[in-house]
Design brief:
With 278 residues, the chain is α/β, with parallel strands linked by helices. Helices cover 41% and strands 16% of the residues.
C-alpha cells in the first residue's frame, strides 16, 4: 500500500506532526498543515498503518500498528527540528496524547482536536454507543465483515463541503476521503486504544491545546473535559460554535489554525532552550 497521502511542508526549526482519525486520511489535516506552515512551522502529516487503502488493509492492522506509525514519523521529524509539537483529530488526538505520554522528552505541546474516547455525539445511534462491546465481539470472531456506516452530517456542518466529502467518501477513493464506514474490528481496536490512553492521561505533562465543537455530532464535549481534567500539563480550551466533529476542515478551521499556531508559538517562546534531538 502506498504512503502517497502523507504530506510534509518545510518550514522553520519548530515542527508539527499531524495525525488523522480512524478510517480517515492525511487529507483531513492538510489545511491545518498548510496554515501552520504559513506560520513558520515544518509540518508532517502522517498516514496511519492500514489506512488509505481497502477495508482488508485496515483490518490487517491493530491500534499498536497505528501508534507505531506515529512514533516512527515523530522520530524522523524530531531529527530535523528543535522543538516538536503533535496534533491530531478524533482518534488522532488520542494517538497524539499517547505519544506525549510515552515520549515526554520528545513533545513540547499537544493539539487535541475533537478527541474521541467514546462515540457519544448526537448523531450516533445506539449501535455506536455499544461500541465498548466490540473488543469482546472481535475475540469471539463476531462481525468481522460488519461496519457502522457513517450517517449525515458526516461530522461537517458546512453543507457544500459535506456534499463534496460524502461524494468522495462513497466514490471508493479511500485515499481522498477515507472509508465510508467503520468496520467493527477496527472500532474494537479503537476502543482498546481509548482505554489505554485514558489510563495514561496523567502522564501527559506537555501543554495541551484542546479544541472541540460545542455541538459535536460524533463525540460529545465530555471527551474534551476528560482530557482537561486528567492531563498534568497546562491546558487551554477552545469551544467552536459553528462546526461539527471535523473541525480541521469545517467552517471555523481558520480560527482553529490561528489559535493552534498562537498556542504553539507561546509554548516555544516559553521554552528556554530548544530541545535538540538526541
Amino acid at each position: 500500500m502506498s504512503n502517497s497521502a502523507a504530506f510534509q511542508f518545510e518550514g522553520g526549526r519548530d515542527g508539527v506532526l499531524l495525525i488523522h482519525g480512524l478510517t480517515g486520511t492525511p487529507t483531513e489535516m492538510r489545511l491545518v498543515g498548510k496554515g501552520l506552515n504559513r506560520a513558520g512551522y515544518t509540518v508532517v502529516g502522517v498516514q496511519l498503518a492500514g489506512h488509505c487503502g481497502s477495508e482488508d488493509d485496515l483490518l490487517a492492522t491493530t491500534w499498536q500498528d497505528w501508534y507505531a506509525s506515529v512514533e516512527a514519523a515523530a522520530e524522523e521529524l524530531r531529527g530535523r527540528v528543535d522543538r516538536l509539537f503533535v496534533a491530531g483529530l478524533s482518534m488522532g488526538a488520542l494517538l497524539a496524547l499517547r505519544l506525549a505520554a510515552m515520549r515526554p522528552d520528545w513533545i513540547d505541546g499537544v493539539g487535541v482536536f475533537g478527541a474521541t474516547f467514546r462515540y457519544d455525539g448526537w448523531s450516533i445511534g445506539w449501535t455506536g454507543r455499544l461500541s465498548f462491546l466490540l473488543p469482546l465481539f472481535k475475540r469471539l470472531g463476531i462481525g468481522r465483515r460488519r461496519s457502522f456506516i457513517e450517517q449525515p452530517p458526516y461530522g461537517i456542518r458546512d453543507e457544500r463541503l459535506r456534499a463534496q466529502v460524502s461524494a468522495a467518501m462513497f466514490s471508493g477513493d479511500s485515499e481522498a476521503a477515507g472509508l465510508p464506514g467503520n468496520p467493527w474490528p477496527a472500532l474494537a481496536e479503537m476502543v482498546k486504544l481509548s482505554r489505554d490512553v485514558r489510563r495514561r492521561l496523567p502522564q501527559v505533562v506537555a501543554p495541551c491545546f484542546i479544541a472541540h465543537a460545542a455541538d459535536d455530532d460524533v463525540a460529545s464535549i465530555a471527551n474534551a473535559d476528560l482530557v482537561a481534567r486528567r492531563v498534568r500539563g497546562p491546558i487551554e480550551m477552545l469551544l467552536l460554535a459553528d462546526s461539527y466533529h471535523m473541525i480541521t476542515i469545517d467552517r471555523e478551521r481558520r480560527m482553529l489554525i490561528e489559535r493552534t499556531a498562537d498556542f504553539f508559538n507561546r509554548v516555544a517562546r516559553d521554552t528556554r532552550s530548544p530541545r535538540m534531538a538526541a
